[in-house]
Amino acid sequence: MGLLDTMFGHQEAVLSIDCLNKERIVLNGSHDCGSIDCVAMLNENHFVSGSADGSSCVWSIFKKKPRTVKQFAHDRNNKQEPFWVVSVAANPFTDLGASGSNNGELRFWRVADD
């Protein structure tokens, strides 16, 4: 293994990275760019994220804000606090994603234009 490059800029820990075929796309999750704890690519132009605020988002690489936000993606506990989305995954080049939560649940999601 040989080091190719080191990228700087985040002020907090980089928690998650993912990429697909095109070298230009590399994503990361970090607390200094909002509450993004995990990311996964859906295709070359879209990715999903999960966060400690309980939300899961669908993003476009062409926008700085999410296209869709699913608040309380894993519901809330009996204190009405959201369960964290601690992991996300995607089956690349399909509409299928998954998220895991600190409540021990795994949920599967279909991502569509509607």
> What is the number of domains?
1
Overall shape: globular
Question: For the CA atoms, what is the radius of gyration?
Answer: 14 Å
Q: State the helicity in percent bands.
A: under 10%
Biggest sheet overview: 4 strands, antiparallel
| Mean pLDDT over the full residue set | 86
Secondary-structure-derived class: mainly beta
Amino-to-carboxy terminus distance: 43 Å
Could you characterize what this model shows?
There is one protein chain. The protein has 114 residues and is mainly β. It has one domain. 0% of the residues lie in helices and 38% in strands. The protein has no helices and nine strands. The N and C termini lie far apart (43 Å). It is found in: Nucleus. One of its GO terms (cellular component) is small-subunit processome. Keywords: Nucleus, Repeat, WD repeat. Its main location: nucleus. GO terms for molecular function: U3 snoRNA binding.
Quickly list its features.
single chain, 114 residues, mainly beta, 3-stranded antiparallel sheet, 0% helix
Chain-wise SSE layout:
Blueprint: E1 14-18, E2 27-30, E3 38-41, E4 46-50, E5 56-60, E6 68-70, E7 85-90, E8 96-101, E9 106-110
Antiparallel strand pairs: 1-2, 3-4, 4-5, 5-6, 7-8, 8-9
Main location: nucleus
Keywords: Nucleus, Repeat, WD repeat
Subcellular location: Nucleus
